[in-house]
Design a protein that fits this description.
It comes from Vreelandella nigrificans. The protein folds into 2 domains: 184 residues, Nucleotidyltransferase, domain 5; 178 residues, 2-Layer Sandwich (Nucleotidyltransferase, domain 5), CATH 3.30.420. Helices cover 35% and strands 21% of the residues. It has 13 helices and 12 strands. The protein is globular, with a radius of gyration of 20 Å. The protein binds adenosine-5'-triphosphate and the ligand CC(=O)N[C@H]1[C@@H]2OC[C@@H](O2)[C@@H](O)[C@@H]1O[C@H](C)C(=O)O. The site of adenosine-5'-triphosphate has 23 residues, from helix 6.
Length: 380
């Protein structure tokens, strides 16, 4: 009997600029049916200070002009094009080998439940038409709004990719993303069961904001400043009263809720700054541990695959280990995916799903009425 040759892998680029606004990550990914996506090369385009400030001004802005919006969007798309060209040059791959670029865009506001009874929305700044023009690649973009239209939270989307990525391995696992916000994915060992995933709350967003208020630089390297402080239990308890932490899934959040003024509204002004930093790290660790405790874990010991920039924060990882004593921490690098590239990889995979008319969301995670094909296609 003749067997047909295996379908060769197609190349996709995933672009992610997360809520930390530290830069645009580009991942070149080889994807073939029935095998785990393979990471071929990576490129990080750092966010220039001017663009970062422009984007921060747009996040939960009360008043903004269309000219400011357009200027930030154009600069953002130019940086995305630089990231696409950078990741291809790294591997010597010509543009015409790329099936599509999956672009997440920059989240500037996320209100999946609406505000004050208004319509639900999630806003990602992006210009896929310009990106197609600048790169000469097919671009897939606007991944979140179809899930929202189907009654979902539009986030987190990465759990579907986590399932695809780790489907070749067996056993119950958790994937934890420590980005600006933290989200957790439960992959059951029994594949007949549904994946569970949700945002647990802030991860780096408040740590970065409080650090930058006191020191030059964007983040507390290895959590050294937090480690020099002591957790203020009264402050921590006050922060944990935020209703988001007590909502059952599906749930997702963003900068519109957790921002510097939110933190400052809980301070008396008498706290030592380093104690506030330690308490913020504790808030992240405790809210993640509380999220994990809600999961229907079938084993006492659990493998926790940790990704996102917060995985480099030694102090935060130590606090997590202390609140999750039964967890065995594993790096996704063991699967060929270093911790900083999973989210960009997710948007390469979502572009693949779109071009093959396959669903991108998991209704068990987002709460959507059903599976949906996510994103729109912009020809080169
Ligand atoms: N060595 C380190 N020590 C402490 N923190 C670090 C270190 N390296 C990275 N980080 C943190 O990781 C953050 C960037 O993480 P990442 O790129 O995963 O976020 P993101 O993609 O913007 O987030 P999100 O998942 O919310 O979209 C930095 O802002 C910083 O807070
Ligand atoms: C609306 C939005 O951009 N949400 C981000 C954010 O960053 C982490 C967490 O909050 C997650 O919900 C999501 O990103 C990842 C890529 C996701 O959708 O899975």
């Amino acid at each position: 009997m003749k067997t047909s040759p295996p379908t060769p892998a197609a190349y996709y680029v995933g672009l992610m600029s997360g809520t930390s606004l530290d830069g645009i990550d580009a991942a070149l990914v080889a994807i073939a049916p029935h095998s785990a996506p393979e990471l071929l090369s990576t490129y990080a385009a750092p966010m220039p200070d001017v663009l970062r400030q422009q984007l921060l001004n747009l996040c939960h802005a009360q008043r903004v002009s269309f000219a400011e919006l357009a200027s930030a969007e154009t600069a953002f798309c130019e940086l995305q094009a630089e990231a696409v060209k950078g990741v291809l040059a790294q591997q010597g791959v010509p543009t015409d080998r790329i099936s599509a670029v999956g672009s997440h865009g920059q989240t500037i506001e996320h209100a999946p439940n609406g505000h004050d009874g208004g319509a639900a929305y999630t806003l990602q700044l992006d210009n896929p038409s310009l990106l197609a023009e600048l790169t000469g690649c097919t671009v897939v973009a606007d991944f979140r709004r179809r899930d929202l239209a189907a009654g979902g939270q539009a986030a987190p989307l990465a759990p579907a990719f986590h399932q695809a990525l780790f489907s070749q391995t067996s056993g119950e696992r958790l994937v934890l993303n420590l980005g600006g916000f933290a989200n957790v994915t439960w992959l059951p060992s029994d594949t007949a069961k549904s994946v569970i995933g949700f945002d647990t709350g802030p991860a780096n967003v408040l740590l970065d904001a409080w650090f930058s208020k006191h020191y030059p630089g964007r983040f507390d390297q290895d959590g050294a400043w937090a480690a020099s402080g002591r957790v203020n239990q009264t402050l921590l308890n006050r922060l944990l009263q935020e209703p988001f932490f007590h909502q059952p899934p599906p749930r997702s959040t963003g900068r519109e809720l957790f921002h510097l003024p939110w933190l400052e509204s809980h301070l008396t002004g008498r706290e030592a700054p380093q104690d506030v930093q330690a308490s913020l790290a504790e808030l992240t660790a405790v809210s993640i541990a509380q999220g994990v405790q809600q999961l229907p874990l079938s084993h006492q010991r659990i493998t926790l695959i940790t990704c996102g920039g917060g995985a480099h924060n030694k102090y935060l990882m130590g606090r997590l280990a202390s609140h999750l004593p039964n967890a065995e921490f594993e790096s996704p690098a063991a699967y060929g995916w270093p911790e900083d590239w999973i989210e960009a990889g997710a948007f390469a995979w979502l572009a693949y799903q779109r071009l093959h008319s396959l669903p991108g969301n998991l209704p068990s995670v987002t709460g959507a009425r059903g599976q949906r094909v996510l994103g729109g296609v912009y020809a080169p």
